[in-house]
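Limitations
The structure tokens in this dataset are predictions for the assembled complex, not deposited experimental models. Users should treat interface geometry with appropriate caution, especially where small molecules or nucleic acid strands are included. An illustrative entry is reproduced here so readers can see what is and is not provided.
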Amino acid sequence: MSDSIAPSFTPDYTPASHGHSVEQLSRPSLSYWQDAWIRLKQNTRAIISLYIVVSLALFTLAGPLLWQVDPALQDLNQISQAPSFPKRALLADPYERWQPIILDDFPREPETYVDVDLMPAPTGVQPLGEPTTQQIRLRWEPVVGAGGYSIYRNQHAPEGINDLGLPLATTLGGNEISYEDRLNLEQRDYYYSIVPTDGFDEANIYTTIKVLPTIAITRDEATQRGLIDADTEIQIGDPLSLRFHPFGTDYLGRDMLARLMQGARVSLFIGICAPFLFVMFGILYGGFAGYFGGQLDALLMRFADFVVALPFLLFMILFKIAFGIGPGESGVLPMLIALVLLGWPGTARLVRGQVLQIRNNGYIDAARLLGAKDSYLIIRHILPNTMGVILVTLTFAVPGAIFTEAFLSFIGMGVAPPTPSWGSMCNEGVKTMLSHPHELIFPATFISITVLAFNLLGDGLTEALDSRMRSR
Amino acid sequence: MLAYTLKRLLAGIITVWFIATATFMAMHMVPGDPLMNDKAVSAEIRKNLEVKYGLDKPVVEQYFIFMGNMLQGDFGISFTQQNRRVNDIIRDHFPVSATLGLLAIFFAATGGVIWGALTAIYRNRLPDIIIMFLVILGISVPSFVFAALGQLMLVNINSLLGFSLIPVAGWGTFSHMLMPSMVLGLGTMALLTRLMRSSMLEIVNEDYIKTAKAKGLSPMRIFFKHQLRNAILPVITILGPSIAAITTGGFVVELVFAIPGLGRYFVQAVQQLDYTVIMGTTVFFGAFLVLMVILVDIIYGFVDPRVRLQ
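Predicted assembly:
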């Protein structure tokens, strides 16, 4: 036939010769997973999330190796410290009693009466010796006519006579011209104001001095807090680095960074293991029901419906208590078991639906005609085709599990103290939210970032694995 | 429709029975019993107490006694709270939890529909980007953080005004309910917004929208009558499970805002192993959830005629 028609064609083209490049593929063949990976890589948000997940894993696993601080070590001298740079302290002598300066050549009681409103402000206010957190000593020049001086301390520069801050003391003579402050000193700026008095009333004038103490620590104290050994060669006045808390400390002076790392271990362990286990169980259960179908399927799925209907949090609490926490145990395992017991029906339903759908596909019938056994069909055809959906479910189940752990720990039904988890750290932090916000902000941020990363990753995976999207 | 409703209700009753049985079993798995909390009770007194409360009987018999009482609507007397019947505890505190949850669902649903529709209208423009950013925040931040922040905000507002505009904690008036229910609904609202957005965007490409446009209907009419009404359907289906999720968060919000809901009593009862209170609250709560899910499904039938035909 073609021979008779061929002459009528204009020779715009030549027919392709046989046996040449017809069967050749224009692009390399991609497997489902290669294709999905390529599309996932195009999704910036998903890739950033993947990096976040990897760095969280590193933070949890490698973090404690790099940051070798005991998360349970309490330091009651450093309670609820805000995040800060490394602090240094000076080794100081033990505190010694100090004699205030009382001038002999200046009258204790004013010889001539000077109206308190006419008194000049004290001059020459200066720290005496090195101001440290152990003590701050001040001295000033006497004011003629004064019968004493009031000393105030404030944490910001005073904005007037009514803003001098905490009244520390009033000396009882015009010749008592020094003061020693040992009142709960921290390393920060203090503003001391000196006001002369006539013995009864204070003048309306004051002199303010700003003092920034250095951190001082005695040898005994340093040994006690484990900063130096008892036989370390160190001189008075030498610098000594204090324990560094980049994320601050909590209400017992424990290092937040170390606790966040240990808490991550608990939170991520539950957050990843529980979904993994219940998804596994869900696959088995749903796959079994879906594949064999019939009465068995109806029965199994009815049971799954019952489990779904259980009030989730009530049963989490009940199961967790039922499995019990022995003394010294962290309570992670009971929570894991409870999560698995209550979490599986969702996956089971999903897998069953998938299996029912796949089971009716032509290639399953074809394989069966060729003599494939059940086990071969399940492993070779059905499981790989449900993998995408399962992976997405798994990714989305992680935030849910992390939230559940956090909720339970937050209401005090989660892991037992002293084991930290992000949720229980939030629970502790929320009590001091106003004064020390970092104790809530850090664990809450970690929870949020983790949940966010898994959610975005799940979105990306859905898009990458969804077969409907493949043609687009 | 009636047959469908009856069938669902029957299944619901069986589900409640399952919940009761599971609770009973889990509860009796916990070592100890409610009488363990009393200090220094001699063996004889303990025996008398066990007889009085029926704890000396075999567990199976206890189960049947409990089920019989439950069928008559009697959950018994609390072991730990003096002279308080479980029915009274539920009557006093359940409405609080239910009000909080339903208000939260209301906020979540209306908010989700409105924001979702807005994002779909302004697709890939500034409002869409801002709302979707907030949605991601809403999904990722646990509700207790929102609760703490919400409370902090109220404190600041009240101290700025110099009087208490909206109470920071407690329960009673509508202004008490406002902040907790909004905080509680936030996560669900974010989820519903996402769902609404994708369902709106899917529907834009449907043939009936093109037909409506071709007929020359006004954009407003197309939007409200065709697009919005169809896009709401998936949102309604997810409302049932959302109610369960919201009760989960409810415990936490009740704790932060000092709301006298059922959550606190349940946690307390579990800690003290107060059998009757545990059973009463769980069964009642479970029944409420089952009922809500059935209700949502029936409502769905009214909204979507296609379901009714099946």
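Some entries come with short summary sentences. For this one: Chain A has a mean pLDDT of 81.
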